[in-house]
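Example record used in the benchmark description.
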Amino acid sequence: MEYANFFKQGRKAPGATSREAKTLILFGRVGNGKSAVGNSITGKKKFLSRINASCVTTECQMETTMLDDGQVVNVIDTPGLFDSSKGSDYYIEEMDKSITLAKDGIHGFLLVCSIRTRFSTEEESVLRSLGEFFGKEIINYMIIIFTGGDDLDTTFYEYLSKSPPSLQKVLQLCKNRSVLFDNKTRDESQRKKQVQQLMSLVNKIKSENGQPYKVNEGEMRKKEEHILYEAQQRQNEYLKQLEAQQKQLEAQIALINGAQSKQSEIAETVQQELKAKIEQLETDKNSYQQEIVRYEILTDGIKSLESEPVEEYHSRKRDKLFMAASVALNVLPFAAACTIM
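Model output (structure tokens):
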């Protein structure tokens, strides 16, 4: 359900006196400066505040101050919504504490945003969560506080006029109840002026609604059970998604291992083939070297013949023939004598 349709004009809360203390409760996502706003309202550093992306306020805290006009104001700071390190049951417990602290009713729900960041889906989720927990009628008691006034380089009116449609829709639901805070100012008159503007809107809310917002305990218990049930359902769905992703990863790992095994077999086959080729190359190399040796021997013989003069060659050849004939002549008589004997 779209948050703009979710918040419709609800019933007015019962019970409050004309001179009661005003109780304001701060909400917002982590890092928007809720605690710093609380310190600006009280005029003292009673709430722990740091420029940090993580949640500084870990539990509900209420501080009381008296303004110059004698008005007593109770300021309740709450943990930053949507801190990923906390669970739904933690926030429900803290919201219960805030209701206990605001036993006489809540005169203003202060949604803290920052001009340093765009109005995001997280702020919209804050509105939905508040509506689910406290009821749709809290929009009648809501004021939007923008922090970071020291960084604004234009008028606040111009900033709001150029804000995204989602923020303008929220402002419209809140009847444009908004205040710009500079939590860093050291000008006491400026700080008091900011607080006066805020309290003017709080008094206007009281005039329109007649009574502060109060919680019906029975309805609140039902809402808490419903929120816890939905949170459990979301958690179960998330676990199912994680299990499905795990199975996909396991299947991918098995596929990769199978491919690696096949690659190992192919690599081993290729290695064996290369080894056989190398051995064949070694054999061919040895044979080739032997052929080279034979060729060199033959070449040397031919070169020797080519370098010997022709006359010496024929002379050496005649000498060999003569010696052979002489041996034959000497042997024949000896052989004949042996025969006669």
